[in-house]
Amino acid sequence: MKGLSLTLIFGISSSVINVNNYAKELSLEVSFSSEDAINKVIDLEVSGVRRQYQLYTPEGLSSPKALVFDFHGSGSNPQQQLAISNSQQIANHLQAVLVAPKAVRPFARGGFTWNTPYHKNFADDVIMSQTIIEQIRLRFKLSELPVVVTGFSGGARMASLLACKLPDKITAVALVAGMRQPELDGESCPDTGATHILSIHSIKDTINPYRFYDGAATSSYWNYGVEESLKAWAGRYQCETTPNHIELNDTVDVFSYQQCLNNKRIISYRLAEGGHTWPGSSFEFPDYLGSVNKSIDASKIISKFFVESLSDK
């Protein structure tokens, strides 16, 4: 991803939480001052690995209604992801806390990526996510806090994994340019719940193919396309085989699966224009990732989807 030149919105100081494993984190009592409330970098240790996330709390919010995760793409970072997604506005709209974690698994093209499909030699990002959820609940003294997740590219792979692994904890996921169905990667998903799923993806994405047989340059990395993911999620949720179809505009079709398990929704925005980018974003993507579809605003669509999903609880 292209380097980012902007003033960081987060303070440079950190609060450090040290835990050796998830069980210790669950029982940890955390004390925060009111000065920690907005725009912080938080360090923590999970299973012996030092992790970090950006924390954004809308000004004046003392009792959040939800927790939003925003996962960056492979080789990117939290600051760049927030510039791409503008997810602070999603948090403002939901009156939610926003968390943008940082990956630690080395990425072949530089930087870091998420440990999915899971490999035992790298940190477990599902456990990290569970730890952050419990830490945020402790921070705001809430017994429960609904969780919604978004991500771009490799970050959407991570969000897909959480929809699989934590269906009883994750209310909804919104996946931009990176939808997966982890069972196709050999993962197992528990039958303890189900998660609302939104996908936004261009058929001209040459990095993560919408249709695997389109022959994207990175096909050996992605292994299957968005269409296969949608069909696998719809099958898992026992949805009707054929989704409803609406032509939103000249470049966007919307598919919605009906009669799914527990009334969960699977919605797919299929874009005829745009590349491996975030629709509506003002971020300057490198040319090789393709154009940005400006006919829709993915962040606004995601915000609306999360509001509706949270109201279903």
TrEMBL record:
UniProt-annotated location(s): Secreted
SUPFAM superfamilies: alpha/beta-Hydrolases
Domain of life assignment: Bacteria
BP GO annotations: xylan catabolic process
Gene Ontology cellular component terms for the protein in this record: extracellular region
GO molecular function: feruloyl esterase activity
Alphabetic keyword roster: Carbohydrate metabolism, Hydrolase, Polysaccharide degradation, Secreted, Signal, Xylan degradation
Classification via Gene3D superfamilies: alpha/beta hydrolase
Protein name from the UniProt record: Phospholipase/Carboxylesterase
